[in-house]
Here is the input.
Amino acid sequence: MSKDSFHQLVADLTGQIAGRPLDQDLDQWLNSQHGAGSPSFEKLRQACIDGVAEGWLCEREGGGIRYGRVFKAEDALSRFSVDVVDMRDLAGPHHTHPNGEIDLIMPLEGDATFDGRPAGWCVYPPGSAHHPTVAQGRALVLYLLPEGQISFTK
Here is the structure.
């Protein structure tokens, strides 16, 4: 899949969630409408796998994590930025989400979880914080950040 096609795929999704509060209701809605095994989940998962293989996703590496911001926040993406990370059995750097964070968890090896969650979506509300942690294998995680806001706490 091309980077432009991936952009359209993500824009279709962000258009559906634009303006919604980042809360438990959104978490449940995403998992019911676009959760693991759904056609939209599988399209996003395959697009991310292909993007990594083609070298335009996760093009940077640090601390055992492959990562990269694919798109900055823009109107076409309903003001969400898009990042993808590739992690295996480790915790990433602690950070806060000033405006919240939406994560798509895509296990690649083993029964990989992200912050204890299996394949699917995880929504963090504004002001939340964590050490993003992949356990029990390897996973790709797509991050949607409202206005691209993230603050690493070191």
Summary: DSSP finds three helices and nine strands in the chain.
